[in-house]
Q: What sequence folds into this?
């Protein structure tokens, strides 16, 4: 919360309800009339709270806390009439809503509490007002305006503070989930490395063949760990794409050639001769295609077919780009349920026993930065298709 923004918000609210210096003067004049009765108002306030378990449950300090709260309420009432209605006044009002969030008091209790105070203040004003009724209506209007402003700031504070608290809790929950995923992903390769190191340090007869086997094992596990760290780094610091022309066939081979593909899986590339070059950041788009191909491989443990296809289609939704390019990756694997399909692109969601669940979220982020989107269709037992829709952009 920025105090300057808060004061600006309060001034806007004052203008909205028609607050003026006359209101401040009326309240200051009313103060000595109603101030002797603050005690009875405060006693009534806490008597009613005691009758409602939902409100009373936040009073955890017993009678001592109640006495402190009564003093706070008296100060709040005095401020209400004396002012000055400056930035410190507004900040004190904000802290009321902030405190309600801290103690877990539902916002509707603040609303009805203020309504109780309003009722008592108006009742006392009507009862104690001098026989000369001149100015009574204007004074009651000033009382209502200052209370409405207080309620607005308290609710504003409650909204900001509760939202901030929810976001902190969500960040902590996400941090816990990410930490658990990282720990899971790195613990296995680290254990494998530790086992190989232990073997090489303690083997009585370490042959060159065994040494090479364990060194290669360590190298593979380091590579696995590096890919986990790279995925996190890519997701956290994804730069703006640098667009260059590349054919789909060339991009597909950049992705496929380094992969170890089971012999039971066949991959085909269908890129028509007249298909325009892709205008993409090749390093980023290779991450997208690599994720889609690896997922397709994982979806076919018993083998199958992966088809990478490119086509140019009409793009009626964007008149400035009359056509778009679609790259689809289709597999004949296990497919996905509608529940999985609804979450598959969300960060940290994964159907695999291993994996951080960042691959498809990263792919979506990259494609969106290219001005496109990813569409997914799937049928359990039949397979899935991930279609990357990209605008056709002319380079140069």
A:
């Amino acid at each position: 919360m920025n105090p300057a923004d808060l004061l600006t918000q309060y001034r806007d609210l004052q203008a909205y309800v028609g607050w003026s210096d006359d209101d401040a003067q009326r309240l200051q004049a009313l103060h000595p009339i109603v101030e002797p009765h603050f005690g009875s108002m405060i006693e009534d306030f806490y008597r009613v709270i005691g009758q409602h378990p939902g409100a009373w449950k936040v009073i955890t300090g017993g009678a001592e806390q109640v006495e402190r709260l009564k003093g706070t309420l008296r100060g709040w009432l005095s401020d209400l009439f004396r002012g000055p209605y400056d930035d410190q006044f507004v900040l004190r009002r904000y802290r009321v809503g902030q405190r309600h969030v801290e103690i877990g008091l539902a916002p509707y209790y603040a609303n009805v509490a203020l309504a109780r105070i309003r009722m008592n203040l108006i009742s006392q004003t009507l009862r104690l007002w001098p026989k000369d009724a001149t100015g009574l209506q204007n004074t009651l209007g000033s009382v209502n305006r200052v209370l409405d402003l207080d309620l607005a700031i308290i609710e504003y504070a409650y909204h900001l503070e509760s939202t901030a608290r929810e976001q902190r809790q969500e960040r902590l929950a996400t941090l816990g989930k990410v930490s658990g995923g990282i720990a899971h992903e790195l613990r296995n390769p680290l254990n494998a490395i530790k086992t190989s190191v232990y073997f090489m340090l303690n083997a009585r007869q370490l042959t060159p063949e065994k040494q090479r086997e364990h060194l290669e094992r360590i190298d593979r596990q380091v590579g696995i760990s590096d890919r986990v760290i790279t995925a996190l780094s890519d997701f956290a610091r994804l730069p703006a794409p640098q667009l260059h022309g590349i054919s789909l066939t060339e991009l597909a081979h950049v992705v496929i050639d380094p992969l170890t593909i089971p012999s039971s899986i066949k991959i085909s590339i269908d890129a028509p001769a007249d298909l325009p070059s892709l205008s993409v950041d090749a390093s980023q788009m290779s991450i997208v295609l690599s994720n889609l191909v690896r997922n397709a491989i994982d979806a076919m443990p018993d083998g199958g077919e992966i088809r990478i296809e490119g086509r140019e289609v009409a793009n009626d939704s964007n008149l400035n780009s009359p056509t778009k390019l679609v790259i689809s990756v289709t597999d004949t694997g296990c497919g996905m349920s509608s529940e999985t399909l609804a979450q598959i692109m969300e960060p940290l969601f994964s159907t695999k026993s291993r994996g951080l669940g960042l691959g498809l979220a990263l792919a979506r982020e990259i494609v969106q930065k290219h001005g496109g989107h990813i569409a997914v269709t799937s049928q359990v037992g039949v397979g899935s298709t991930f279609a990357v829709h990209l605008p056709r952009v002319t380079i140069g």
Q: What stands out?
A: Residues 169 and 216 are 43 Å apart (CA to CA).
